[in-house]
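Record type: monomer structure entry
Structure origin: computed from sequence
Chain ID: A
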Amino acid sequence: MSTPVSTAPDTLGQALLAYQQGHLSATLAVHSSVADEEVLPAAYFFRSLWEMPEMERTALDECRGRILDLGAGAGCHALELQQRGFTVKAVDISMGAVEVMQQRGVREVACHDIFDPALARGEKFDTLLMLMNGIGLTGTLEGLECFLMHAKTLLNPGGQILATSSDISYLYEDEDGALVFDLNGPYYGQVTYSMQYAHQTGAEFPWIFTDPSLLQDYAQAAGYEVEFLEEDDQQQYLVRLTLV
């Protein structure tokens, strides 16, 4: 496994483990470069099928074959897919999350970064699942481009990526509704996050929210067919990228 070892606290994993151990009020504080501090209850990662947004339920319905759940968190999607009879490998970079998934009964769990070459050794998948704004795991536009190429080594012929993201351009609207961007700066959807739990703060990490047209351009350039399956009034969307 080539996942880099971080000395920063695994704040997400700590919160998930605390919830798993019965501390149901466990909560993360999420800091970002584009918004005020937000509160993220650990309970959100443990939701049942009918507690999931409709978009996530649609994505689960569209899964097929052998599935790789990337950024799987506490394993709520992997567990639902297992119940439906699918073979699922669930991975997360958080060791705490991996431990929680093992305790919850996810059968195949591993600690990996999504770019880890070890993901592609000896097995292929029919579906890569990237939910909860999962495109964000790629971090930057360069990371998105790299991941789309990397994913080709993970997919069987005709395989698909099912992913969610959102367009956050609304954060840059002025009082008249016009968009105000720094055209000389990075892409407006590139955000820096950190998470705090129990007075410990984890390392900062990049996250990307891609508008649909940009994602379509990158995916088509990488050799995928693009199909937008669902969108909501919060400018979130579910996309299927099919390897051609």
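Annotation 1: The CA atoms of residues 146 and 155 lie 15 Å apart.
Annotation 2: The chain has six helices and twelve strands.
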